[in-house]
Amino acid sequence: MTGGNRTQDGEPAAGRQVIEQRGLYFDELQEGAVYAHRPGRTVTEADNVLFSTMTMNTQALHLDAAWSAGQPFGQRLMNSMFTLATMVGQSVTQLTQGTIIAQLGLTDVSFPHPLYHGDTLYTETVITGRRLSASRPGQGIVTMEHTGRNQDGTVVARATRSCLMWTREAHGNAQNSQNVGE
Fold first, then answer.
1. Using CA atoms, how far apart are residues 31 and 142, in angstroms rounded to an integer?
2. Residue 157's pLDDT band (cuts 50, 70, 90)
3. What domains sit in the chain, N to C, each tagged with a CATH number?
4. What is the C-alpha to C-alpha distance for residues 88 and 83, in angstroms, rounded to an integer?
5. CA-closest candidate to residue 108, choices 141, 147, 165
């Protein structure tokens, strides 16, 4: 997407095109295509402790190494909400950066295998449905299935996500109408 010819301080830059990174518009998303989001994210003990304490989740399975050693998995588990948030986050630059209007919901969330400290999370997304909105011209609803795998290819998380997305033409028109008053 062209953001105009501007320098860092907002002044026009003669002869230079400025390209902004963005996700895909509703009309660019392909049903059935697999979008592989890279790079992966190696998760750490610090990630787990910080996320768990920031969200007031005092579950010993995330924070207490000695207690967790005596539990069925034998070690602390990454907070599943961290796993979910990271999985969705990994898709943003490729799919929804600047092209999403709203996240509408998450369903069918599952964690079939734990993610541990030191594992690397890789996420792929399949577009399973898309339809133009009946009540919001220039916008469409997209359904995405996110799958997160560890470095061994084991599925550690799944989620279905619905988003309200711009069409390319409508987003361009909305941006142009905002710039008229500047």
1. 9
2. very high
3. 26-44+81-169 (3.10.129.10)
4. 9
5. 147
Long-range CB contact pairs, 51-58, < 8 A, 24+: 51/79, 51/81, 51/82, 52/79, 52/82, 55/79, 55/81, 57/81
Written as six digits, the tokens of 54 are: 């920031």
Alpha-carbon distance of 151 to 128, in angstroms, equals 25
Whether residue 182 is predicted with pLDDT greater than 60 in this model: the reply is: no
- What is the percentage of the chain residues whose pLDDT exceeds 70? 87
Strands 100-110 and 120-132: unpaired
Q: Give the integer Cα–Cα distance in Å for 93 and 168.
A: 16
Tell me how far apart the alpha carbons of residues 38 and 119 are, in angstroms, rounded to a whole number: 15
Alpha-helical runs (H) found in 13-137: 45-54, 60-63, 65-69, 80-91
Q: d(Cα 157, Cα 85) in Å, to the nearest integer?
A: 11
Residue 125's contacts (CB-CB under 8 Å, 6 or more residues apart) are: 34, 35, 37, 91, 95, 144, 145, 146, 147
Nearest to 3 by CA among 182, 179, 166: 179
- The reply to whether the predicted model has a pTM over 0.70 is yes
